[in-house]
Backbone:
């Protein structure tokens, strides 16, 4: 074999090796769901990682759409976006909402630049404010805890990979419906979303009743969490309360709040009104019930405490409590507590 042919054969072998190497690399793609505050990574269609994220505020919403992660940034510099220091590099950060500060750990921060198909741009980056993960508090960007971002960064290939960012307030996973807060007020018809997921809804009135109650519950919890965040509180314990999960079989059962006993259970972080709202009672009426119930220390409620409200002809006539404070019953007939 002469030298020229030998070189051609070697080049052909080399090119085949490179082609096989590229073909063997897993195809990575990313999905983010804004209301669920979740980022999921897939390799060749197989889920390999999932992280909680923070997203934009209603004033600076995170955009939805399809695009590509076009750049991996090993150096990320964060700047103040408002106030007297606007534009300046952030040099110190809190290690908790109100405690001492430390130097920004820029050596451990990473970023991913996203280019949407329609031209919009976005950055996914590390955040030191780990207590804000799971809430709509950023200036449009998507934020991850530092350790999670380091893991995600290692998963992302050097070449561009696909990303899709959705605004799904309802998801169907393994036979259960997951409802999330409508952060930006985009949702116009959750009932239609549920049906579009293939749930065989026949009693639309019952379905609407459930969805209205779930919406009330999620709105109330979101307001409470954001209020505490603004007050400098650590609300990480409330994160799992923004995924209202109900099995499809339970969702399809007839549900008419009037004319029955409404039984609810206190969850971690609940105020007195929160579990009552989950039971289908308006926030205004829940406050009225709280004002009418004397002899129960509402500040000492604990997860697992049980409430039961007796409803007769739309009037709430009795409130029963069972929990750490014992068993108590309160007669409410004539207190003008009517379900609208």
Residues:
């Amino acid at each position: 074999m002469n030298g020229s042919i030998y070189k051609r054969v070697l080049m052909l072998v080399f090119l085949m090796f490179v082609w096989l190497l590229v073909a063997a690399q897993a195809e990575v793609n990313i999905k983010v769901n804004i209301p669920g505050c979740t980022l999921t990574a897939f390799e060749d269609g197989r889920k390999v990682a999932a992280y909680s994220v923070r997203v934009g505020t209603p004033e600076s919403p995170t955009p939805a759409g399809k695009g590509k992660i076009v750049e991996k940034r090993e150096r990320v510099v964060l700047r103040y976006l408002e106030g007297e220091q606007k534009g300046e590099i952030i040099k110190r950060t809190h290690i908790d909402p109100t405690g001492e500060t430390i130097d920004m750990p820029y050596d451990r921060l990473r970023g991913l630049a996203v280019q949407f198909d329609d031209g919009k741009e976005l950055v996914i980056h590390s955040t030191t404010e780990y207590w804000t993960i799971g809430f709509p508090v950023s200036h449009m960007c998507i934020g991850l805890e530092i350790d999670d971002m380091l893991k995600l960064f290692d998963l992302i290939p050097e070449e561009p990979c696909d990303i899709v960012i959705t605004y799904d307030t309802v998801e169907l996973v393994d036979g259960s419906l997951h409802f999330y807060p409508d952060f930006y007020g985009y949702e116009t018809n959750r009932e239609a979303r549920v049906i579009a997921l293939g749930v065989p809804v026949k009693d639309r009135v019952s379905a609407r009743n459930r969805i209205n109650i779930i919406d009330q519950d999620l709105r109330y919890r979101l307001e409470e969490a954001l209020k505490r965040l603004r007050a400098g509180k650590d609300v990480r314990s409330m994160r799992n309360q923004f995924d209202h999960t109900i099995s499809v079989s339970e969702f399809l059962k007839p549900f008419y709040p009037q004319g029955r006993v409404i039984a609810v259970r206190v969850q971690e972080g609940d105020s007195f009104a929160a579990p009552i709202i989950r039971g289908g009672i308006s926030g205004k009426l829940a406050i009225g019930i709280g004002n009418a119930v004397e002899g129960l220390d509402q500040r000492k409620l604990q997860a697992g405490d049980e409430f039961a409200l007796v409803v007769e002809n739309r009037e709430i006539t009795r409130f029963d409590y069972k929990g750490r404070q014992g068993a108590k019953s309160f007669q409410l007939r004539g207190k003008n507590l009517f379900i609208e």
User: Anything to note?
Assistant: The chain is about 25% helix and 30% strand. The chain has three domains: 7-166, 168-256, 257-340. Residues 257-340 form a domain with the Nuclear Transport Factor 2; Chain: A, fold (CATH 3.10.450.350). Confidence is low (pLDDT under 50) at residues 18-24.
